[in-house]
Design a protein that fits this description.
Elements: H1 6-16, H2 24-43, H3 48-60, H4 77-89, H5 105-119, H6 123-143, E1 145-146, E2 151-152, H7 153-156, H8 161-177, H9 182-192, H10 202-205, H11 210-229, H12 245-250, H13 256-260, H14 284-295, E3 303-310, H15 315-318, H16 322-325, H17 331-334, H18 338-347, H19 362-365, H20 368-374, E4 377-381, H21 383-388, E5 395-401, E6 406-411, H22 424-435, H23 441-452, H24 461-464
Parallel strand pairs: 3-4
Antiparallel strand pairs: 1-2, 3-5, 5-6
Helix pairs in contact: 1-9, 2-4, 2-6, 2-22, 2-23, 3-4, 4-5, 4-11, 5-6, 5-8, 5-11, 6-8, 8-9, 8-11, 9-11, 14-18, 18-20
């Protein structure tokens, strides 16, 4: 008997991972991530791009099958996945897997929820599909992680691994909810591989296109499952073949063992990092360091000079070009700025977990006090931080005050991961902060309760329907 291909092994894993065999820590982690994503989708309605994607989806027409958060009447499942995926990723507040540097839930959860709702799936099957989709997504990302270089090969090629791997992981999740057999899941990987994409240059120099990436991945995932159900097929060697996924995206340099070792036994899902702050994950420890120095007594007016030491590979994202990072034009650009995060941490956080959504506005990006602090920040490679990357995104912040005193704070571990997990209460605070003003307290309670019991729900619609209509927040699009 011929050895199974990598796609066949992933499909067999997906089929074997039934709701009854899913470890409780995986199931509970999935339920937390669903609530987190839904909160992010609500919060994203403050952005013009969110109004744009909802209007675009509604304009397409088609049979009403699935809910868009804040979108009113249902829309076709691929379009619901598109809109919710865009919403979930737009605030850069979605979870991250390390060291692959993927944001898995923003693609997988919208794809699975849309497929589940369209097919009348129950909560147990939906939790199972999301867990499998997240695992496939993460393992594909790790197959493209260069351990020697300590960085993602996808990133080195200018590719957004999140949307690329998310399309395939989401397709497997959607395929399970469309009740495809094992061979159909092989086909869905083969079809989705031709739909995956994402160029990451916007992280460096601006543009809102990155907000589309997870939505496009989720839309591709659901569409791939629908097409396979109608008879389309894909190559069984889609991953490792001479002209397959790994050759196309990674020039043939991949780690097959990362894809298959411990598959079905060692789950990556519970270790995916939740984000405590709505900004690029590379910047979080910079904010933590600045907040720690503030708590120790350093005040902004006493700062003479600041040096932010970070892993070498992240400088191009949060420290280059330095002129732009010291003077972001928008709140969105500020989310990718190391200097801004230092300034935000020193000046004091807003609502939520220390820094909240209200700390990243266009007005604050131009605030004179923040601009003055940002102008004093130098972003440099720190050897110790680089050694810890990308299993963590460490930072060392050194400040010299006007009296010549040196202040120093190291942050070796990211908040929200296994070493510094967010508690259930902190995740609940994040959800309530994200949905404040747009959901009534009663609806907040309904969503959090049903999300926690997702595996017990007979219909996924019961979780999603309360989110179809949102309250209006003055001055912001809903």
């Amino acid at each position: 008997m011929a050895e199974h291909t990598l796609a066949q092994r992933l499909a067999e894993f997906a089929t074997a991972a039934t709701p009854g065999t899913l470890p409780e820590e995986v199931s509970s982690s999935v339920r937390e991530r669903v609530v987190d994503v839904l909160g992010l989708c609500v919060a994203a309605h403050r952005l013009p791009t969110s109004a744009a994607i909802v209007a675009h989806v509604r304009e397409q027409g088609g049979p009403p099958r699935a809910t868009v958060v804040g979108g009113g009447e249902p829309v076709p499942a691929p379009l619901a996945a598109l809109a919710n995926g865009v919403l979930a990723h737009s605030l850069d507040y979605d979870d991250t897997h390390l060291p692959s540097v993927l944001h898995p839930s923003a693609s997988i959860v919208p794809a699975a929820l849309a497929a589940a709702e369209a097919n009348g799936a129950d909560g147990r099957e939906t939790v199972r599909a999301i867990a499998v989709g997240l695992e496939v997504c993460v393992r594909l990302g790790m197959a493209g992680y260069d351990r020697e270089a300590g960085n993602s090969t996808f990133f080195e090629h200018g590719q957004h691994a999140t949307s690329i791997c998310g399309a395939l992981g989401g397709a497997v999740a959607a395929g399970l909810l469309y009740e495809l057999p094992t061979e159909g899941l092989v086909d869905v990987l083969g079809v989705a591989a031709s739909m995956a994409g994402g160029v990451i240059e916007a992280n460096r120099t601006g543009g809102t296109v990155k907000r589309l990436h997870c939505g496009l991945a989720a839309q591709s995932a659901v569409t791939a499952a629908q097409l396979v159900r109608r008879g389309f097929t894909g190559p069984p060697t889609v991953l490792e073949g001479r002209f397959g996924f790994f050759e196309a995206f990674l020039h043939g340099a991949y780690d097959a063992d990362a894809l298959t070792d411990g598959l079905g036994e060692d789950w990556a899902v519970p270790g995916i990092f939740f984000k405590p702050y709505p900004a690029n994950h590379f910047t979080h420890t910079a904010a933590d360091a600045a907040m720690a120095l503030r708590e120790q007594g350093l005040t902004p007016e006493r700062v003479e000079r600041l040096v932010l030491g970070v892993p070498g590979p992240v400088i191009r994202t949060i420290g280059q070009p330095i002129e732009r990072k010291r003077a972001p034009e928008t709140g969105y650009q500020a989310q990718f700025s190391g200097p801004y995060m230092v300034a935000a941490g020193l000046l004091g956080g807003g609502r939520g977990l220390g820094l909240g959504l209200d700390d990243f506005t266009d007005a604050l990006a131009h605030d004179p006090d923040r601009r003055a602090l940002m102008a004093k920040v130098e972003v440099v490679a720190d050897e110790g931080s680089t050694r810890g990357f990308p299993a963590q995104f460490p930072a060392v912040l050194t400040a010299v005050d006007t009296d010549g005193r040196e202040w120093r704070q190291e942050v070796p571990h990211n908040r929200g991961g296994p070493q510094r997990p967010l508690s259930a209460a902190e995740l609940a605070l994040k959800f309530r902060d994200n949905t404040a003003g747009r959901l009534s307290p009663e609806t907040q309670d309904t969503v959090t309760d049903r999300g926690a019991r997702l595996h017990e729900l007979d219909r996924v619609q019961d979780l999603l329907h309360p989110l179809a209509e949102l309250n209006t927040v003055a001055g912001e699009p809903t």
